[in-house]
Specification:
The complex is a heterodimer of chains A (about 270) and B (about 725).
Chain A lengths: L8 E6 L8 H9 L19 E6 L9 E6 L12 H5 L26 H5 L6 E2 L26 E2 L5 H16 L16 H5 L5 E5 L6 H6 L1 E2 L5 E2 L4 E2 L11 E4 L3 H5 L15
Parallel strand pairs in A: 1-10
Antiparallel strand pairs in A: 1-6, 2-3, 4-5, 7-8, 9-10
Chain B lengths: L1 H12 L2 H14 L12 E7 L8 E7 L2 E7 L12 H4 L1 H5 L9 E3 L8 E3 L2 H17 L6 E5 L5 H13 L4 E3 L3 H13 L4 E4 L6 E7 L8 H15 L1 E5 L5 H5 L2 E3 L6 H14 L5 H7 E2 L1 H11 L2 H8 L3 H13 L3 E8 L7 H13 L9 E4 L14 H7 L19 H10 L7 E5 L3 H4 L3 H9 L3 E4 L6 H4 L3 E2 L10 E4 L8 E5 L12 H12 L12 H8 L4 H7 L1 E3 L8 H4 L7 E2 L23 E6 L13 H6 L5 E2 L2 E6 L1 H7 L6 E6 L3 E8 L7 E5 L38 E7 L1
Parallel strand pairs in B: 6-7, 6-15, 9-10, 9-13, 10-11, 12-21, 15-16, 16-17, 22-27, 24-26
Antiparallel strand pairs in B: 1-2, 2-3, 4-5, 4-17, 8-14, 18-19, 19-20, 22-28, 23-24, 24-27, 25-26, 25-28
The chains are: A alpha+beta (about 270), B alpha/beta (about 725).
Amino acid sequence: MKQERPKKFGMVIDLDKCTGCGACMVACMSENNVPFKPDETDKLTSITWMRVYELNNGKPFPETDVCYLPRPCQQCEGHHGHSPCVSVCPATATDYGMETGIVSQIYTRCFGCRYCMAACPYHVRYFNWWDPVWPDGMEKYLNPNVSVRMRGVVEKCSFCYHRYQSAKDRATYEYAEGDRDSLELGEDEYQTACTQACPAGAIIFGDLNNPDHRVHQIAQPDEKHGGRPKNPHAFRLLERLGTNPKVYYLSNRDWVRRQGDNTLAGEGKLKRH
Amino acid sequence: MSFIIGGAAGTALSPLPWKLTDDLSIWTQMWPWTPVPPDGEISYDGSTCTLCPGGCGIQVRKVDRRAVKIEGTPGHPINDGGICILGLSGLQLLYGPTRVKGPMKQTGGRGSGRWVPVSWEEALEEVAGRLAEIRDQGRPESLAVFSGNRRGTIPAMLTRFLTAYGSPNIVTGASLADSYELALHRMQGVQASAGLDLDQTDFLLSFGSGVLDGWGSPVRMFRTNSALKDGRGRLVQLEPRLSNTAAKADQWISINPGTEAALALGLAHVIVLEKRYRAQFVNEFGGGFDAFKQMVMSGYAPETVAQITGVDAKTIVTLARDFSKASMPAAVCGRGAGDTPGSMNEVFAVHALNALVGAVNSAGGVWAVPEPVEYPWPEPEMDETAARGMQAGRLDGAGQGRYTATSSRPEQFFEAIRDGEGYPLEALFVVEANPCYSQRDPETVNAALAKIPYVVSFSSFLDETARNADLILPNHVYLERYEDVVNPGVFNRPFVGLVQPVVDPQFNTRNVGDVIIELAQGLGEPVGGAFPWDSYEDCLEQAYEEQWDALTGDGFWMDEDFTPAGWPEAFETASGKFEFLPEGLEGGYAPLEIEGASGEYPLVLVPYDSMRVSTGYIGNPPFMTKTVSDTVLKGDALLVEVNPKTAAQLGLSEGSRAVLTTAKDSVDVRVHLYEGLMPGLVAMAKGFGHTAYDKYLAGKGSNVNRLIGPVQDPVSGLDAAWGVRAKLTRA
C-alpha cells in the first residue's frame, strides 16, 4: 500500500449564500454532544463550536446591510503546525495533525489551564465551567462516536474528526472485502455535520491539497504565501496574524471582506507578504 | 532559608507536582454522572418532518434503538439533503422533558396542574361517555375540534368523525396558504393550492415574504436563493425591516408597512403604461383587464405610489422594468413565515402582477396544484341526530354568507364562543395545536375555553393549551407515528410525504388516528360504522393504495409528470378567464386599518419571524433557543428593535428597560438599537413568552400575540393584521 499524501482539510463558506439561519450551529451541537443550559444568553460561557456572528456595515437606515459569518475552529497551521493554541498547551492536549491538518483536542489530557483560549485569536475554544446536564431522558440522543466532555476541560470544533475516522474504517473494511480499489476517500465520504446540514449549501468542505476538491478550486490557496487565497473574493479571518487558517470565506461585498481583518482606524494598509 | 529554596527546587524538579496535577485532572473528570453513550449498530430510517408545513425528507441515524441524529434526505425533491435548524432539533422534542407520558386527567380544575394518570381504557371510556351523553341530548353540534393541520388523513378523519357524530364544527388553523387558495379560487376559478416553480424562477419579487425566514418550505427556499446567487437570477425584497431575507436579497427596498398592495399596483401601472405586459395572456385570457387598466392608470402613477409606500418613483419604474424583463419572474407575498393569512387585497394585487407578466401556470411562475388524491371513503352515513346537528351551522361562520370559500375562521370561532354567539359548546378537542399560545390575542382563547365544560387535548407536550384542558390523550410525536404530509409549502406538484415511525413510542401514547377510530367504534352505530378500519395505518394505506409502494419505498410520492393546466384550460371562472379585478381589489389599494389610535400609540409594532425560533404548536427546543442572539434575548428579557433615531426621540438607548403597550396589553421589554429597522417602528420577535414547557423555554421574554388582536379581512374573514399601533416608554 502506498503512503497517502498528507491531507489538509479545509472549508470554504460563502457569506453571500449564508442566511444566518443557525442550522450549522445545531447540526454541530447535535452531532458533537454539545450540552445546553437553561440560560444560554451569556455568550461567553455558551459553548458553540460553530457560532454564527452578525456583521453590519454600520450605515444608517436604509443603507444598512448585515452579513452572517459562521465561525468553526479555523484549524490554523501557523508555520509548520505551530498554531497559536498548540504552541501554548502544556499538556499536549491539543496538537496539529500533520496528516490531516486538523487541530485535535484530547479532553482527558486537558487540565483546564485555558492558555489555549487566551492564545486563540478566533474565540473558538470554550471552557466547561459546569458539568453537562441533560434533562431526564434526553441523554438518549447522545452520539457514541463523540465523547461527552466534563467540567474543567476545554473543547472546540474538530471538523467532525470522528466522521473522518468512520469513513476511513468503512473504506478499510470495503477495501479488505474487495468492494473498492483504493483507500483514498472520495470528497463526499467525509463531510462535517454543518456542511451536510446547511440548507443554503453555503459551506463546502474538502481537502485543500487535492486539486479535484471544490475547496481547492474555489479558495485557490497559494502555498508559497501561507495558503493565502488567490480567489479575489475569498479571504481568511485576521490574515495578517499569520495563523494560516484553513477556513476561507467568500463574499462579493467589499465591506464584508474588509471586516475579515480588524484594522484600527488610521492603521496602514494590509501588508502583503 | 536555603532549605526552603532547595526544597522548592527539589519538588519542582521531581515528577511529584506533575503527577499530582495529572491525577487531579483525572479524578475530577471521572464523575459517574458524565454520561457515556452506549455504542451499537448504526442504521438510518427515513421519514418526513412535520415540525413545520415544509414537508422535508429526513433520515434518522440510530444506534441500536436510540435515535441520535436527524439529517436531510439526499435527493429528496423538497430539501435534497439540506435540513433546517428546527428539523435538526427534533430529537430534543422526542426525548424532551415536556412530553406527556400517558393519558392524564386534571383533577384540581384547569390550570391547577394536579394531574392524575389514567389508563387509556378509562380515558376513552370517559370521553365516549361524555360524547354519548351530548349526542343523547340531541346537541351533537356542541362538540368541536380544533386542528392545527388542514390537509391529510388526520384532519379528514376528524371531519369524518364530526360529520357522523353530527357537528359541523371542525376548525383548522389558518395561514397564508388559505389566502393563496382563496386568491386562486377567485381569480382563476380553481380549487388548488399555490405552488411555485422555483427550479426555474429567475426573478423572485417578494412583498415582505420571509423567503429566508421560514416562508414556504424553508430549505427549498434557501436552495432557490443559492441558485439565484449562482447566477440564475435575482431576489428583490420589499420590507420595512432588514430581515435576513432582506439582507440576503440582491436588492432590499424599504417600504412603509401595509402598503405592499399599492406598490404592486404601482408596478402594474408602469408595466401597463410601457406595454411591458404579456400581451398574449392579457388579451386572450385576461378578464376585467380594461377595468384593471383604468384603475392602475388613473390612481397608481409612480409619484402617487411613492407617496403611499415611501419607495421613490424612480425605484418603482426601474423595478417594474426589471421584473417584466425577466424571462421567468414570480411575485409572492405574505409576511414572515406566512403563518397568518394576511390581507386578500394584497394577495390579489400581487397575483394580478404575476398575471400581467404571464407568471401563472407558466415556467418559473405560480402554479395551481390540485390535491394529490381524493380519499376513496364513501360519505359517512348520518342518522337523524347527526343530520340535525349538521344543520346547526358552523360557529365560526366559515363556508357561509360572505365567506363561502373560506374553510375555517379560527379567530371568529374563539370570539363566538367567548361572546356566547350561536349555541354553547359542550366539548372541544384540540389536535396538534396550541391556540392558547399561538392565536393572536390568546386571552380570547382562554376566555372561550373557560366557557366550554369539557376540553380534551391530544398534544404530545404539556403546552399552554394542554395545561388548560381537562384531559390529555397524548399523541405520538412524529418520529413515533404514521401520518401523511400533503402538498407542503409552496411545492409545485401534487405531493405526499410519508411520516413513518423510526423509534418505538417512548411513552404510553397513541396515534390520534387510532384514538379517533376507537372513540368512534366505542360510540357504536352510526358513528362507528364510518370507521371500518382496524387501525390508522390501515386507513392510511387504503387512502394511498396506489401510491403506497412509492410512499414506503421513497418516503414520498409526487406526480412527476404534472404540468399545470395551460392557459386555455386553466381558468374556471364564470368568464373562463383570469379575473384581474376580483371583489376585494376592484376599489384598488385598500389599506387595512390596524388596531389602535395613532395619537395614543405613535409607533407601529411589527412582529418578525426568524429561523431560530419556532412560533407555532412546536415550542422552541433548547438547541434553537441557545442559538438566539443576545441582542434578541438576554437573560429572561426580550429585546425589541428600534431605530436609533426613534430611540433618541424616546430617550431610550441600547439595553434600556421599557414598557411596550398596545390597545391589547402591555409587556416589559428591553431595547436593541437597530439601523435596519424603519424609524417609527418597533420590531418584536415571535415565539417567546411561553408560560408552559420547561426551564429551557418558559418565562423567556413575552408573547407578541398578547399585544396584537386579529383584524378581520373583509374578503376572507380571516386575520389580516400585520401589526398594531404601540407606544414604548422608559421603564
